[in-house]
């Protein structure tokens, strides 16, 4: 059986614990291999390697650092299909989505490599004569990256590329469920010739590896994507240690459908947003907020189309919906469906674990739609992270915006309308970090900031130029060539 190891200081090595856990294919339960389970001591070895490497790396000119990212980008392009197949087998998303995710990593590599020549600071006029003033970006130091299983290479690319191009070293803990994709990504970094110690892969549980990373005094920042419960705990502890955190957490994203909307387009966007990746996206469409005049027609179209979605192993090109990640997720989703029924919502479609048509060995949940949902119901407020959609009826755009904003999350939102005035009102008033007009709640592009408001995060952003702010400090520099002591505001006024 294939064993997947840590990558520390340029070497592949087993954990000091000698423990391994199985990696399962969520579509059929097949054992894909075993992954080493690391200890606090393994984390420390990785951090010390990163700390040593970063001392030299910070002195490498940023355009030269970027050359390694270009090499990674071209290697990812060469192996796109190979990595996509691994991703689907390990995580479960359908193969088209897996290809799209690898493409996102490719795009991010090229984009962040370009930033190697664009790490701009500012030059500003001094208020005193014969004095020069400017600000520059400098690396933070050692970045601890904790990434989830639902986008195992895309999110790792969002974090590792900006960290490296800005002069940091990385200690990376991937999700326990998706270590093979992490192994393939680390191999590409190795083949690209990245100096040893700059990227360290440490496999293991959050309670051991993740906690050790947060507590380690030589990890200067933690970039985390995952649940609100874990992210909040990381933020609380890191705050006590005066350690920077970048958190991207949950979502309860809504599509608003107004009376003048193109319903065919809205249905396309809703189905893709709700049931792509089996609803296991932080940007997944979880709510439909629909004007009462078109509610019934929209429901009829959704029910008709949902029956056309085929479930199965995502490596089959004809399959549209893959499995959820594991058994515990399957059971959690089903518990939420029971809660929705108890709360009085009406089940229009789905609502069951799929155990027929040869799918009984996998973790499949039927795409599910509730209607007659009220904003106060738990299924309308809490993140389910599965293929469950709730329909809420409203009488106006103002009410729709109020419902959209009435949850603790603020990641993504969407509106379907033909009225440009209403679209601009929604763009202004929707309290989310991402807003789509006449598109679903998913489909972020890597050159724009990614993240949200309220309980979705802590103000930082992955992706785009904004990601550079996570991994850099600002240094202000003053050069006085007057030949005398100038005491700023004292002498100037």
Characterize the structure shown.
The protein is of the alpha/beta class and 493 residues long. The protein folds into two domains: 268 residues, Aldehyde Dehydrogenase, Chain A, domain 1, CATH 3.40.605; 185 residues, 3-Layer(aba) Sandwich (Aldehyde Dehydrogenase, Chain A, domain 2), CATH 3.40.309. Helices cover 38% and strands 21% of the residues. The strands form six sheets. A seven-stranded mixed β-sheet has the order 15-16-17-14-13-19-20, sandwiched between helices. α14 links the parallel β19 and β20. 52% of the residues are buried.
Quick gist of this model?
The chain is an alpha/beta fold.
Helix content: 25-40%
Number of helices: 16
Oligomerization category of the chains in this entry = single chain
Q: Reading side by side through the largest sheet, how are the strands ordered?
A: 15-16-17-14-13-19-20
Query: What CATH architecture label of the largest domain applies?
Result: 3-Layer(aba) Sandwich
Number of domains: 2
- Helical/strand content category: alpha/beta
Distance between the termini: 76 Å
CATH class assignment of the largest domain: Alpha Beta
């Amino acid at each position: 059986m294939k064993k997947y190891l840590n990558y520390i200081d340029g070497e592949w090595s087993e954990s000091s614990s000698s423990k391994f856990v199985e990696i399962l294919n969520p579509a059929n339960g097949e054992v894909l291999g075993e992954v080493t389970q690391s200890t606090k001591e393994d984390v420390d070895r990785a951090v010390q390697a990163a700390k040593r490497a970063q001392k030299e790396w910070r002195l490498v000119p940023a355009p030269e650092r970027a050359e390694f990212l270009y090499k990674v980008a071209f290697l990812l392009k060469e192996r796109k299909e190979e990595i996509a197949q691994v991703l689907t087998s390990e995580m479960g998303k359908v193969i088209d989505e897996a290809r799209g995710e690898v493409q996102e990593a490719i795009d991010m590599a090229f984009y962040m490599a370009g930033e190697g020549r664009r790490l701009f600071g500012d030059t500003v006029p001094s208020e005193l004569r014969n004095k020069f003033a400017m600000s520059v970006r400098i690396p933070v130091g050692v970045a601890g990256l904790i990434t989830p299983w639902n986008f195992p290479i895309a999110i790792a690319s969002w974090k590792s590329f900006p960290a490296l191009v800005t002069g940091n070293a990385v200690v990376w803990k991937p999700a326990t469920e998706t270590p093979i994709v992490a192994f393939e990504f680390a191999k590409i970094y190795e083949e690209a010739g990245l100096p040893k110690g700059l990227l360290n892969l440490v496999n293991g549980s959050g309670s051991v590896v993740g906690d050790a990373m947060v507590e380690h005094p030589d990890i200067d920042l933690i970039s985390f994507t995952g649940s609100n419960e874990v992210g909040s705990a990381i933020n609380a502890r890191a705050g006590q240690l005066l350690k920077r955190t970048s958190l991207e957490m949950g979502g309860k994203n809504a599509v608003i459908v107004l009376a003048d909307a193109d319903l065919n387009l809205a249905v396309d966007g809703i189905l893709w947003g709700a049931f792509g990746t089996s609803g296991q996206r932080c940007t997944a469409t979880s709510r439909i907020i629909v004007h009462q005049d078109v509610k019934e027609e929209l429901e009829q179209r959704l029910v008709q189309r949902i029956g056309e979605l085929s479930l199965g192993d995502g490596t089959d090109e004809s399959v549209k919906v893959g499995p959820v990640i594991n058994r515990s997720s399957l059971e959690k989703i089903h518990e939420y469906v029971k809660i929705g029924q108890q709360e009085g919502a009406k089940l229009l479609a789905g609502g069951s674990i799929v155990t027929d048509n040869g799918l009984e060995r996998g973790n499949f949940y039927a795409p599910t739609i509730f209607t007659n949902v009220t904003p106060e119901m738990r299924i309308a407020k809490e993140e389910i992270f599965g293929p469950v959609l709730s329909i809420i009826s409203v009488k106006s755009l103002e009410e729709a915006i109020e419902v959209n904003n009435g949850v603790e999350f603020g990641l993504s939102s969407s509106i379907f309308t033909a009225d440009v005035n209403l679209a601009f009102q929604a763009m202004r008033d929707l309290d989310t970090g991402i807003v789509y007009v006449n598109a679903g709640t998913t489909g972020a592009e890597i050159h724009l900031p990614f993240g949200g408001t309220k309980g979705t995060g802590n103000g930082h952003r992955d992706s785009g130029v904004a990601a550079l702010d996570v991994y850099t400090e600002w240094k202000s520099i003053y050069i006085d060539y007057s030949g005398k002591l100038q005491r700023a505001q004292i002498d100037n006024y």
